[in-house]
Amino acid sequence: xxxxxxxxxxxxxxxxxxxxxxxxxxxxxxxxxxxxxxxxxxxxxxxxxxxxxxxxxxxxxxxxxxxxxxxxxxxxxxxxxxxxxxxxxxxxxxxxxxxxxxxxxxxxxxxxxxxxxxxxxxxxxxxxxxxxxxxxxxxxxxxxxx
Amino acid sequence: xxxxxxxxxxxxxxxxxxxxxxxxxxxxxxxxxxxxxxxxxxxxxxxxxxxxxxxxxxxxxxxxxxxxxxxxxxxxxxxxxxxxxxxxxxxxxxxxxxxxxxxxxxxxxxxxxxxxxxxxxxxxxxxxxxxxxxxxxxxxxxxxxxxxxxxxxxxxxxxxxxxxxxxxxxxxxxxxxxxxxxxxxxxxxxxxxxxxxxxxxxxxxxxxxxxxxxxxxxxxxxxxxxxxxxxxxxxxxxxxxxxxxxxxxxxxxxxxxxxxxxxxxxxxxxxxxxxxxxxxxxxxxxxxxxxxxxxxxxxxxxxxxxxxxxxxxxxxxxxxxxxxxxxxxxxxxxxxxxxxxxxxxxxxxxxxxxxxxxxxxxxxxxxxxxxxxxxxxxxxxxxxxxxxxxxxxxxxxxxxxxxxxxxxxxxxxxxxxxxxxxxxxxxxxxxxxxxxxxxxxxxxxxxxxxxxxxxxxxxxxxxxxxxxxxxxxxxxxxxxxxxxxxxxxxxxxxxxxxxxx
Lengths: 146, 501
Prior knowledge:
Chain A is of the alpha+beta class.
C-alpha cells in the first residue's frame, strides 16, 4: 500500500507541500489564481509541523490497520482497491471521530464542506503534488505504508 | 552602534497580483529581508537586509518575486564607484577588516576567454566520441624517468603510488566547518559516483565520511585540525596546504560560534573555540622543511599514497613549484587568485595573487625546462568555470583541475558572498542546523554528478573535434591553443601562438 514518506532530516519547513496540495485540490492550474487572497482555500492534505530546528510534513500514512476506517460511523472512510484510504464526502457526516482516532493527526474537518479531509495521494497524477513540490526531496512515495 | 548610511543594495519586487501570502519567502530568508504584516495581510520587504541570494525568488511558488540590483545608485564616478563608497562606509561603521566570501569578483581579465581551441579539418580527421572510445582517465603522481621492461614484456620499473581519475576534475578543498556535513557528504558521494576525488580541506574528516576515504584527499594545513593517523590512513592521497588562491599569505579563521559538537570532535578542538590556522606552517620555513613534512607523511602512510602540496598562484610560483617537486611531492596543486573561500579579507582576496592561467603556464614551462615535469603532477584550480576551461587548462599543461565554486553553484550557491555570516540561505556555508537541512546530500550529489557528467561529455566532444582520443594526448599540447586579444609578453608567458599564426 503506497504512502508518502517524509524525511525529517531534510524537511526545511518551507510549507511548499501544503501550498501545492491546496492548489491541486482547488482544481485551478494557475497557483497564483487558485490561492489568491480572499478566495476560500481547500483544506490541505498535509501539514508541516515545526519545533525548534525540526520540521516534518505530516500526511495520511494510509495505514494497513487504519483506526479511521474502523472508527468511521457512516462508512465514509474507505479503502480503495489500490490500498489508499479515502473519504467518501457524500457519506461523511463530519462527526470528527476519524480526526480523534488518527494517531498522526492527518485527518482534518474541511472548513468549507464540514466533512473529513485527508491526503488521497493525488490519484491520476504522475506523483502527489506535495512530492513534486518539495524542493529538497524530503517527501517521496513509498510502496509500503506503516 | 553607528547608524548606517548605506542604501539597500538590492531591490525586492513583488507582484502583488501573484503573491498568495504563503510566507515561503519569509521562512526561507535567513537575513530577515521578508516580513509578513499580519494586520495588512501582506508581505513586506526589508530591502536593507537583502543580500541578493535569490532564495526567496527561487522558492516562490507563484513566481511573484524578482530580486534585482540597483535599488539605489550613488552619482556615477569612475574613481569612487558604488563599491568603493560602500566599502568605505562599512568600514567607517564597523572599524574592522572588510570580509568577503567566495572568490574575487573584480573584473580582472579572464585568460581562459582569450584562448581558443583547435579543431581538425580534412588532414587529421575529427573523432566522433559517440562512436569511438574516448579516454578521459587521468593518473596523478610521480612518473619514473624511464621505464624498464622485463624479458617477458612486463613492467619491471616500480611505479610510485598514483591516483586514478575517470575524468580530470576533482572537488577542491572546502573544509567541514566552512560548509556543513550535508554538503561534505554530497561532494564525497559525487566523487565516488564519478570515480574522482574530493578534498577535505583543513577541517578534518567527519567520522561518518570515513567510508568515502578511497575517494578522499585529506589536507594537512597549518592548523593541523583533525590530523591523526586514522585520518591519513583513510585517505587516497594527502595534500599539504601551504596557501590558498583567495588569500595567499593569510591563514584561516573559523569563528568559535561555528564550532559545534561535531566540528569540535572532527577538528579536535574545544567546542566554541576559534579555529585559527596560522598564515605559515610553523614547521616549514624552507623547501628542506617542506621535504621533512612530505616524507614524514609518506613514512606515516608507508609510502602507499601520493603526497601533494597546494600553493596559491603568486609571482614566483614557478620557482617554488620546482622546489616542491624536488622536495618529493607527487603532485602540486596551484590555486589561482579567483579561488573561492568561506571568508577572506576583501583587500587580500581582490588584490593578492596572479591568474591561474599564467601560474600554470609558468610552472609547467619551468618544470619542463628543468627536466622534472614527469616527477610531479599539476592540479590547477581557482576559477575553473566550465568544461572548456578544463580542456584549456590541460592543453596549457595541467594534469587535472580542481573545482569548488562551480560545485557549490551546482548545489545552489548564488555567489551572494555572505559565507562569513554563517547565514547561508541555501544551506551550504552554514552550520545552523535549521539551514543545513536545506541541502539534501542525495539531491546535491545528483546535481554534482549531472554537472560533471555533462562536462565529461563536452570534454570528449572537444577532444574528438581535435582528432584526439585520449586526454593524455592533449596534456601540455599548447599548439592546440591559440590566443585572441593578448599582447606579446602574455603570449610568451602562456607559450601560445596568436590566432591566425
